[in-house]
Amino acid sequence: MAALSSLRVVVPQVDITRGASGAQGAHSAGAVGDKAFFGLRSGQRLGAEVGRVTLRGCGVAVPAGNVRATAAASKVVKEKAKSEKAQLLVTKEEGLELYEDMVLGRSFEDMCAQMYYRGKMFGFVHLYNGQEAVSTGFIKLLRKEDYVTSTYRDHVHALSKGVPARQVMAELFGKTTGCCRGQGGSMHMFSAEHGLLGGFAFIGEGIPVAVGAAFSSKYKREVLKDDKADTVSIAFFGDGTANNGQFFECLNMAQLWKLPVIFVVENNLWAIGMSHYRSTSDVEIWKKGPAFGMASAHVDGMDVLKVREVAKEAVARARRGDGPTLIECETYRFRGHSLADPDELRSPGKIGQSTTQCLKEFD
Amino acid sequence: MLGALSRNRPLLALLRGGNGGDKAASAALWAASKRFMSSDNTITVREALNSAIDEEMSADNKVFVMGEEVGEYQGAYKVTKGLLQKFGPDRVLDTPITEAGFTGLGVGAAMYGLKPIVEFMTFNFAMQAIDHLINSAAKTNYMSGGTINVPIVFRGPNGAAAGVAAQHSQCFAAWYGQVPGLKVLVPYDAEDARGLMKAAIRDPDPVVFLENELLYGESFPVSQEVLDPSFTLPIGKAKIMREGDDLTIVTFSKMVGYALKAADELAKEGISVEVVNLRSIRPLDRETINASVRKTSRLLTLEEGWPQHGVGAEICASVVEESFYYLDAPVERICGADVPMPYAANLERLAVPQIDDVIRAARRACFRKEEKKQATA
């Protein structure tokens, strides 16, 4: 069972003699330290020159290069990783903003549960408890005009993106004052003003939409010659989605055309009642990025500061025009899949353990 | 209880059947005790489907179930409850969230000798797999000159539930009903569910089996004959649920219940309604529909799906073509509103037909004066 370990950054160990990219030893959950952020500049093939190494506890761009250079970089990473905690700095204002956003997300979802059981809300309601660090860590780095797409577990993404909590709650009650006039509901939060492009019931559906938004951003810049068009889009989705065809199609297209999109996998290890380990041949989702030549990272999704550091790197890459990034955030949902889910298949012990782990980080 | 067991043929067959041995027996006993302990033979639609699939899997080793959450979770709507325990993970497969992939896989398996039952969590999700449903399953028998069959069943809930909004509430009867090469079944009660499911599994062609989430928990009395493992219903035959002389209501799935309730109300006003439960969208039982309309001379079609190009449109066309001179009134269609399903409860109520809508339209067809419109919200 993969531990919610400290930050893992990854580099695939490229062996040019074998021609295959196989990260040995990466299969064991909990392996820390000898991996780094894998970045390939556009047009670079495996075996090209060494790139920058930037490390702030989480992001290291290492080039594909010969195996020895990679191993050397790994040693650097290993040493720096030991003192990584000290590197994750935010200002007091930023810290308070993150804290407020996460607490808002948590209390909003708890209130949803209360209202649902009192019959004020109905249908399918999927709560985000436990995963707040991912939403806050990424979305608080975006501008208002950047885009976010999500799945049915979208309340907190909407809140982080700036949709007023009152509007989101009114939407859940089915009121005309809701952000979609009560017509969309829990699973279909949209906001043109805040760049929230949904809210989709079908998993995988939001990913091409986010890629399309990124495409339009690039198009505006290059075809319509609008220099100021550098919006970034983020697609949030889960571990179950990483087995869906649309995901792979979008990884290919986004990398092929170097679109300013970020694929964020909120890996909470469960898709309704289907464990990630039962449904996936290779459980390490971040590895799917390098298969398409895409920069990829794996991060502890329960730590907002770590998520934020990785996100900063990814957003900067996208805005610069360096292309997409795939980021796997290991996280956990504290409640069932939805409020109607009996949630019989997860062990109560594990849920409890994750809760305490999350709280410890804040001490 | 043991004495009753030894006399009970269907129950013994259940206990004997399956490949699981001891654990099968205990699972079957659980299922049986739930089903047969009540003296009046009432079962829910869910139990009807579960028992039908169970019996067919016991009878034929080539039948297997595939879909999301069908195994360990016992089915997203508990329709496949107990099947994993009884038949094992080789015959009840939990799939990843890969509709296009596993649907295609099922079609391939069917082409080469197996009999898959593919569950879609709702038929909305089948849109991710519709290429295989239509292009590989439906068209293959024709394209191969009749040499390759695809004995596959696609099943799952269809249509509106409660408060699940636009992407979970579409009715697909009209879409699949249009495709040559498919059989499309729409059970209403427990008898329909059992008989049609067994017929679908035994059928050598692809069958789209459209259930309804809100009907799963409803109980219906069934005769002993229905509970027999050899019970099936013919595909393509509608059932007259209630006989009448003044007006024919043709409908399917959950709306059959609405039509029956409306018929009770209308009987108080002296309007005698005949309710036709289609059971099958494709093939459509035009004979039964037309015979009924020729008797009553008035037609009302009722469905939850969208109006344009809907099931009702086809029925009206069929009746106008074949029974024109028997009609005493224009044909009436009641459908869901022409919008994606809204989330808000009051809007959702307005977007699907209600019993009052049926009553009003029936009066209109009978040239009765309409009562003042009441607010339905």
UniProtKB/TrEMBL annotation, chain A:
InterPro entries: DH_E1, PDH_E1_Alpha_Subunit, Pyrv_DH_E1_asu_subgrp-y, THDP-binding. It catalyses: N(6)-[(R)-lipoyl]-L-lysyl-[protein] + pyruvate + H(+) = N(6)-[(R)-S(8)-acetyldihydrolipoyl]-L-lysyl-[protein] + CO2. CDD domains: TPP_E1_PDC_ADC_BCADC. Its cofactor is thiamine diphosphate. It is an enzyme of class 1 (oxidoreductase). Residues 101-351 form the Dehydrogenase E1 component domain. The keyword Oxidoreductase applies. Keywords: Oxidoreductase, Pyruvate, Thiamine pyrophosphate. Its EC number is 1.2.4.1. It holds the Pfam family E1_dh. GO terms for molecular function: pyruvate dehydrogenase (acetyl-transferring) activity. The keyword Oxidoreductase applies. GO terms for biological process: pyruvate decarboxylation to acetyl-CoA. The pyruvate dehydrogenase complex catalyzes the overall conversion of pyruvate to acetyl-CoA and CO(2). It contains multiple copies of three enzymatic components: pyruvate dehydrogenase (E1), dihydrolipoamide acetyltransferase (E2) and lipoamide dehydrogenase (E3). PANTHER family: PYRUVATE DEHYDROGENASE E1 COMPONENT SUBUNIT ALPHA, PYRUVATE DEHYDROGENASE E1 COMPONENT, ALPHA SUBUNIT BACTERIAL AND ORGANELLAR. NCBIfam families: PDH_E1_alph_y. Tetramer of 2 alpha and 2 beta subunits. This is Pyruvate dehydrogenase E1 component subunit alpha. It comes from Ceratodon purpureus. The lineage of its organism: Eukaryota, Viridiplantae, Streptophyta, Embryophyta, Bryophyta.
Automatic annotation (TrEMBL), chain B:
SMART domains: Transket_pyr. It catalyses: N(6)-[(R)-lipoyl]-L-lysyl-[protein] + pyruvate + H(+) = N(6)-[(R)-S(8)-acetyldihydrolipoyl]-L-lysyl-[protein] + CO2. GO terms for molecular function: metal ion binding; pyruvate dehydrogenase (acetyl-transferring) activity. It comes from the Eukaryota. It is found in: Mitochondrion matrix. Its main location: mitochondrion. Keywords: Metal-binding, Mitochondrion, Oxidoreductase, Potassium, Pyruvate, Thiamine pyrophosphate, Transit peptide. Its EC number is 1.2.4.1. GO terms for biological process: pyruvate decarboxylation to acetyl-CoA. Its cofactor is thiamine diphosphate. It is an enzyme of class 1 (oxidoreductase). Gene3D superfamilies: 3.40.50.920, 3.40.50.970. The keyword Magnesium does not apply. Residues 43-218 form the Transketolase-like pyrimidine-binding domain. The keyword Zinc-finger does not apply. CDD domains: TPP_PYR_E1-PDHc-beta_like. One of its GO terms (cellular component) is mitochondrial matrix. Tetramer of 2 alpha and 2 beta subunits. The pyruvate dehydrogenase complex catalyzes the overall conversion of pyruvate to acetyl-CoA and CO(2). It contains multiple copies of three enzymatic components: pyruvate dehydrogenase (E1), dihydrolipoamide acetyltransferase (E2) and lipoamide dehydrogenase (E3). This is Pyruvate dehydrogenase E1 component subunit beta. It comes from Ceratodon purpureus. The lineage of its organism: Eukaryota, Viridiplantae, Streptophyta, Embryophyta, Bryophyta.
